[in-house]
């Protein structure tokens, strides 16, 4: 996706100029990363993406006119979109979960150490997710109050979609739901990393999803992890 032919191109979207300046300083000193532009509101994102062609967008959630959730949904529904990492001050925010369902590849707390920010950007640019199993559980528990009486449309949909998978595809999907990286899945399921990547691509096509985080959330919806 990026990095293979040059540095990872990053667009910073935040309404706080101090946050943008701090992130630009952090990323400007990191090898293989380059900040190609900034935006102060979600409304500026489409033009900024068109102008700068970023590989990764660091997207603030709370902005005054168009918030990061709306901007993420619009961006990820466009052809060949960049990856999105949402920025938030809270680690259990229902808006973060909505952004992940919309296609964000992960999220960063605004007080994340600089080295971890750089690592997260590199991961999502390479097609991985910036979302730990602990964080996934926090988010799921934050918006889930436990089983509700009667049918659960989201769970039923998830189970129906996952039922169409082969046993091996289901194994990979569950591993994604556990927050495993490609290398970890490779070791656990005794397949090459290239084969894992092929399975992930097949899952995205078969489930009509646009990244591995959405697969993980589908697995959580089905109650498999």
Automatic annotation (TrEMBL):
User: Is Transcription among this UniProt entry's keywords?
Assistant: yes
In terms of SUPFAM superfamilies, this protein maps to: C-terminal effector domain of the bipartite response regulators (SSF46894), CheY-like (SSF52172)
Q: What is this protein called?
A: Two component transcriptional regulator, LuxR family
Response regulatory domain: from which residue to which, for each copy? 9-125
Domain HTH luxR-type: from-to ranges: 158-223
> Any idea which UniProt keywords this protein has?
DNA-binding, Phosphoprotein, Transcription, Transcription regulation
One Pfam family name from the record? GerE
Q: Which InterPro entries match?
A: CheY-like_superfamily, NreC/VraR/RcsB-like_REC, Sig_transdc_resp-reg_C-effctor, Sig_transdc_resp-reg_receiver, Tscrpt_reg_LuxR_C, WalR-like
Q: What are the 4-aspartylphosphate sites (modified residues) in this protein?
A: 60
Which residues, if any, are the signal sequence? none
GO terms of molecular function: DNA binding
Entry's Gene Ontology BP terms: phosphorelay signal transduction system; regulation of DNA-templated transcription
């Amino acid at each position: 996706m990026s990095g293979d032919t040059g540095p990872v191109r990053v667009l910073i979207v935040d309404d706080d100029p101090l946050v943008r300046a701090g992130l630009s300083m952090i990323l400007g000193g990191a090898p293989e990363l380059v900040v190609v532009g900034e935006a102060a509101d979600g409304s500026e994102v489409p033009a900024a993406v068109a102008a700068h062609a970023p590989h990764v967008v660091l997207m603030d959630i709370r902005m005054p006119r168009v918030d990061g959730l709306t901007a993420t949904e619009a961006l990820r529904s466009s052809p060949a979109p960049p990856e999105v990492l949402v920025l938030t001050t809270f680690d259990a925010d229902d808006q973060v979960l909505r952004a992940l369902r919309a296609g964000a590849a992960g999220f960063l707390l605004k007080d994340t150490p600089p080295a971890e920010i750089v690592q997260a950007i590199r991961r999502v640019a390479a097609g991985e997710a910036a979302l730990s199993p602990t964080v996934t559980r926090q988010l799921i528990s934050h918006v889930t109050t436990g089983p509700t009486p009667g049918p659960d449309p989201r769970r039923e949909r998830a189970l129906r979609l996952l039922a169409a998978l082969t046993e091996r595809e289901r194994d990979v999907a569950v591993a994604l739901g556990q927050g495993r990286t490609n290398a970890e899945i490779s070791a656990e399921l005794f397949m090459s990393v290239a084969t894992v990547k092929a399975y992930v691509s097949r899952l995205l096509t078969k489930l009509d999803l646009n990244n591995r985080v959405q697969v993980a959330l589908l697995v959580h919806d089905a109650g498999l992890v």
